[in-house]
Here is the input.
Amino acid sequence: MKILITGATGFIGQHLLEELKEDDFSIRIIMRNDSPKFWCSNRNFETFIADISDKTSLGKAFQDVDVVVNLAAELHDKNKFYSTNIIGVQNIINLSAIHNIKKIIHLSSTGVVGMQYSNKKVIVDENSPCNPKNEYELTKLQSELLLKEFWEKSDKKIIILRPTHVFGDHHPQKYLLEFFQRVKSEIAIPRCKNTTENYVYVKDVANAIRFFIKNDTSSMVVTIGETISFQSFLDIVSGAFGVSCKIINVSSFLNDFMKTIGYFGINELKAKFQAISNRIKYDDAYMKNNVLYKYGISKGIKKTIEFYNI
Here is the structure.
């Protein structure tokens, strides 16, 4: 099987290359420059210098390919949201049709739903209505709609994966490390009762992509990421350090107050309160019943702590 991966030099991309190194696949990767920084040990791939927003640079890379894994996305530069997240996906669709590629696996985000916060329990699944709250989320949703239109008009298999908050070794922003340090130092953590956390270890995302490369499934949208209570999350982290960390229980009645002060421009304080009182749960039933979490949150946290030697 010949696989083409875009965004392979990124955080999730290099973890995917590691995950695939024992498989008998022929791997091609697209990269925008000829000197990316690789940390992964898998070098068993063919490289193409191209940009998904430039269709003319992509043609040769798509020849004789069976599966395209699209991990490329623009997260920060607003000037490139449209060209990368929308035009890039349309180019992948067009070239997949031309070269008769059997399957596209596209990495999206639960952010497309636009449900960042609720102080009441809300369950979000793959069929929940989408109402993006920012330009990035909007472009990611538009790319999903392009792919869904393609699967309705063709015989291609389209898999859209929506991870929650991805963490792990080699994260470019070292996500969660500050929180881990606070727990290790036994600093009390403020939280409201029944707060939930939505995280997924990066290697579980990579393993899910590998599952859909290897298995013949219907076209679908799949949420990746476990929801656990904040107390359970804290117990896992504090247990990894062998310490006892306390929670300062913040009364949930403050939620209405925080909504009010948001109107007066104190949005930073409001955002911090929302982070400690969120009760959204993402339904990951397909992952739990079919793909399974190879690592899970607990093992993922321990491996991340070990990697950064905290």
Notes: The mean pLDDT is 92. The radius of gyration is 20 Å. DSSP finds ten helices and 14 strands in the chain. Residues 2-167+200-225+281-296 form a domain with the Rossmann fold fold (CATH 3.40.50.720).
